[in-house]
Amino acid sequence: MLLLGPPGAGKSDLLLRLTGGGWRLVADDQVVLRDGGGALRAAAPEVLRGMIEVRGLGLMEGLDSEAEAPLALAVDCVARGEVPRLPEPARFEALGHALPRIAIHAPDASAPRKLELALDAIAGRIGCRAGALERVPYPERAP
């Protein structure tokens, strides 16, 4: 997933919580996008690979990271008041690819779980009856 937002929006803090929960770091602060194998892919600039800025600690390096990953979701990290209760579907477009786009308040304790739910809906494991991912097909249900 691609985290978007201005400085101070909570992107790096959310990334710390995600990696603490088993997710893998690709890039922090800067990302290189490319068209690869029918998917939009993200990588860190080589000089920043394995690094993350941690407010209050500094620029940390040597973290385990992935060289590159396909993207399935774009996430706008916004102020709590800017997160719509029932959002309309939106898209992030780059290099001829379109990704579902959602908005969250990154500092919320529930933010990592919201991202897991969004990715589950995109993968077809659960459905979204109304809201940002409503056009994602429902998973097949056994009778």
TrEMBL record:
> Which branch of life, at top level?
Bacteria
Domain HPr kinase/phosphorylase C-terminal residue range list: 1-61
**InterPro entries (alphabetical):** Hpr_kin/Pase_C (IPR011104), P-loop_NTPase (IPR027417)
> Pfam families from the xrefs?
Hpr_kinase_C
Q: Which SUPFAM superfamilies does the UniProt record give?
A: PEP carboxykinase-like
Full protein name: Aldolase
Recorded source organism is: Roseomonas populi
Q: What is the lineage of its organism?
A: Bacteria, Pseudomonadati, Pseudomonadota, Alphaproteobacteria, Acetobacterales
